[in-house]
Amino acid sequence: PLFCRLLGGEGAGYFEIRPKGAFHTRRRYLPGTNILETTFISNSGRATLTDLMPLGRSSSDGTNVSINAPHWLVRLLGCVEGHVEFTVRYRPCGPGFAANPPALRKARRGVGIAGGPQLYSEVDLAIADGTAANTFDAFATHAEHTPGLRFAWHF
Predict the structure, then answer these.
(1) Which segments of the chain are extended strands (E)?
(2) 53 phi/psi in degrees, rounded to 5
(3) Is residue 103 classed as helix, strand or coil in its secondary structure?
């Protein structure tokens, strides 16, 4: 319910990572997985955003039958060609937050809501009007994902 923009329109919550300026996208699920890969193509480069919710085995169960979802949304951003300027914006919203977004606060490595979900970000985020945001450049490197462009949302 915190990312209600999918259903609730512009005034609802979101966690957006997108290039600044003109771009187009291609999306696909990696074969045999629930991992979504979005490729952004702009005039200056090409970048890939990988979205996943990791699963883990319950520590009390030695089999693979009991799967435990640890309540994480992980987003990995890598520039694979040239460079792309990005904007990241995070505005949680949910029951009781519709008229008044929750008060975001700076956390050690990101932003969060007191007693609520935390967004871990290696990009420094400024908070204004219930939204955490910033712009940054992603550059192609030899690494699979550009260091410093990892986001994890724990709920």
Answers:
(1) 14-19, 23-29, 36-42, 45-52, 56-57, 67-68, 72-91, 104-107, 110-113, 118-121, 126-128, 131-139, 150-154
(2) -120, 105
(3) coil
Distance CA 16, CA 59 (A): 33
Residue with the larger pLDDT of the pair 54 and 47: 47
| pTM exceeds 0.85 for this model | no
Bridge partners (DSSP) of residue 76 are 50, 150
| pLDDT reported for residue 12 | 72
**Residue type for position 78:** G
Tokens of 107: 């956390």
Hey, CA dihedral for 51, 57, 63, 67, is it positive or negative?
negative
Query: Residue 113 — very low, low, confident or very high, per pLDDT cuts 50/70/90?
Result: confident
Per-position b or e across 91-121, b if 16+ CB within 10 A of its CB: bbbbeebeeebbebeeeeebbbbeeebbbbb
Residue 15 or residue 42, greater confidence: 42
